[in-house]
TrEMBL record:
BP GO annotations: angiogenesis; cellular response to lipopolysaccharide; defense response to Gram-negative bacterium; dentinogenesis; negative regulation of blood coagulation; negative regulation of cell adhesion mediated by integrin; negative regulation of endothelial cell apoptotic process; negative regulation of extrinsic apoptotic signaling pathway via death domain receptors
Protein name: Plasminogen activator inhibitor 1
Similarity annotation: Belongs to the serpin family.
Every Serpin domain range: 38-387
Originating organism: Monodelphis domestica (Gray short-tailed opossum)
PANTHER family: PLASMINOGEN ACTIVATOR INHIBITOR 1, SERINE PROTEASE INHIBITOR, SERPIN
Any GO molecular function: signaling receptor binding
Predominant location: secreted
Gene: SERPINE1
Length: 413
């Protein structure tokens, strides 16, 4: 069942609250990552019309952190200004790696994995020292592929995504997404499977009316249970009240927060426009456990987002401009720019819990096609011994049909 208008922030929920009791945890880092992801999320919501949106803030933050390392000049400054941090800031990269380890730690109990990859054209001349420096910052090896074999390169990257999302996302890069101009693709993949600490009884699921934002209703399967939940109320600056409920997963380190407006016709934009990490922390801090009858739709969502316009709206414009993009820290031989930025997310919520996966990609291409040399006319070829300069063979090639060749003469094809 797909809801009329649902906003689900997959990775936001996977960062906030993780490791709260751990002395090693750096809440400032997780807040910076989440806040930037939420800024992109708000832009995606505004450009999505009335469609469902499910988004991974952690995914876009991860990919753009890698992109930072490849850019220079105004391009780099615009990315850093939008993200409000530099990946090379002292102590930041280790803190991000520590956050990553906490997300992957066994004490979370729920199944969670995330991975980053950077695929680069295998014969592209990189700035000296880039590969070891990239590994030092991200602890990730650069994967070299041949984008001139577009379909094979696409298969390699899609296979990587499929493996790291447990098969939930199998075709991130569709046919024609990469070609001979593609020089680099940066990818983040995320997978999450969590069981509710308080599962919904399947016998309590019944069809009920769901009120859509346009005032109409639709009958959908609704899960129901009566239990003690952490909950609170929230009043937006515009004067709209929301019920906030926390649904913990069985490991108690991850939770889903649900915000529902009092008025059925109230647009979610009143809340999404102000949503950030600090606000969710305020919800958490003001919650009290109380008995509630919780009725929640059983749903699945699949969302695709073109991130170019949302990122441009946040000030990251130069990287999309062939004449202005600066990737000089990656290669000083290639004239590169970001040709595509996209994200695909799938999520399923049922009586037992949540299964979700996201993948985010940025495609970097050359600014212009290489000059073509098409050998489709008579030509001359020479086989030369380079050390001596001796010509070993010098032949003119003419496409003469065998039946027309002079008797006793061989033909070249």
């Amino acid at each position: 069942m797909k809801l009329s208008r649902v906003f689900a922030c997959l990775s936001l929920l996977l960062i906030i609250g993780v490791g709260d009791s751990l002395p090693q945890h750096n809440p400032q880092v997780s807040q910076m990552v989440t806040d930037f992801g939420m800024k992109v999320f708000r832009e995606v919501v505004q450009t999505s019309g009335d469609g469902n949106v499910v988004f991974s803030p952690y995914g876009i933050a991860s990919v753009l952190a890698m992109l930072q390392l490849t850019t220079g000049g105004n391009t780099r400054e615009q990315i850093q200004a939008a993200m409000e941090y530099s990946i090379e800031e002292k102590g930041l990269a280790p803190a991000l790696r520590k956050l990553y380890k906490e997300l992957m730690a066994p004490w979370n109990k729920d199944e969670f994995s995330t991975a980053n990859a950077i695929f680069i054209q295998r014969d592209m001349e990189l700035v000296q020292g880039f590969m070891p420096y990239f590994f030092k910052v991200f602890r990730s090896m650069i994967k070299q592929v041949d984008f001139t074999e577009g379909e094979r390169a696409r298969f390699i990257m899609n296979d990587w995504v499929q493996r790291h999302t447990k098969g939930m996302i199998s075709n991130l890069l569709e046919e024609g997404t990469v070609d001979q101009l593609t020089k680099m693709v940066l990818v983040n993949a995320l997978y999450f499977k969590g069981q509710w600490k308080l599962p919904f009884p399947t016998k309590g699921t019944h069809h009920r009316l769901f009120h859509k934002s346009d005032g109409s209703t639709v009958s959908v399967p609704m899960m129901a249970q009566t239990n003690k939940f952490n909950c609170t109320e929230f009043l937006t600056p515009s004067g709209h009240y929301y019920d906030i409920v926390e649904l913990p997963y069985h490991g108690d380190t991850l939770s889903m927060f649900i915000a529902a407006p009092y008025e059925k016709e109230m647009p979610l934009s009143a809340l999404t426009n102000i949503l950030d990490a600090q606000l969710i922390s305020q919800w958490k801090g003001n919650m009290t456990k109380a008995p509630r009858l919780l009725i929640l739709p059983k749903f699945s969502l699949e969302s695709e987002a073109d991130l170019k316009r949302p990122l441009e709206n946040l000030g990251m414009k130069d990287m999309f401009r062939p004449g202005q993009a600066d990737f000089s820290r990656l290669s000083d031989k290639e004239m590169l720019y970001v040709s595509q930025a996209l994200q695909k997310v799938k999520i399923e919520v049922n009586e037992s819990g949540t299964v979700a996966s996201s993948t985010t990609a940025i495609v970097v291409s050359a600014r212009m096609a290489p000059q073509e040399i098409i050998v489709d006319r008579p030509f001359l070829f020479v086989v030369r011994h380079n050390p001596t300069g001796e010509g070993l063979e010098n032949t003119r090639w003419l496409p003469i049909p065998l039946s027309c060749a002079p008797l006793g003469k061989s033909c070249l094809y």
